[in-house]
Design a protein that fits this description.
By secondary structure, this protein is an alpha/beta fold. The chain has helices spanning about 30-45, 60-75, 90-100; strands spanning about 5-10, 15-25, 50-60, 80-85. The chain has one domain (about 5-95): STAS domain (Transcription Regulator spoIIAA, 2-Layer Sandwich). It is built from three helices and four strands.
């Protein structure tokens, strides 16, 4: 599991959750790295849940949001669940506009 400038990892004490925290501006420039890094970390782990904290994301564009959907789909195909937690206002708005709350295990945003 490797980290990048926008991703940090932490293992959980519960033995089933791998936690990743994203930060900064996530856009076209970072989308592929975020997708590839998260997917590789999930595939190389024995955890059942990939929990992605997006509280420190200050901007997210459609490419980066698509990268997160791609991670969710590829990880789900391997039997691992992906959830987003603590969405920052820009992430919450993007999820609300795209209708992806259920995909990421978030309650519907109002």
């Amino acid at each position: 599991m490797s980290a990048s400038d926008v991703i940090t990892y932490e293992t959980s004490n519960d033995g089933i959750t791998l936690r990743a925290a994203l930060s900064g501006e996530l856009d076209l420039r970072d989308a592929d790295e975020v997708r590839d890094n998260l997917a590789a970390a999930a595939r190389s782990s024995t955890y059942q849940v990939l929990q992605i904290d997006v509280s420190e994301v200050t901007l997210i564009d459609s490419y980066a949001l698509g990268a997160l959907v791609s991670v969710r789909n590829s990880v789900a195909a391997a039997g691992m669940r992906v959830t987003l937690i603590n969405p920052s206002p820009p992430v919450a708005k993007a999820i609300q506009v795209t209708g992806l709350s259920d995909v990421f295990g978030l309650p519907p945003l109002e």
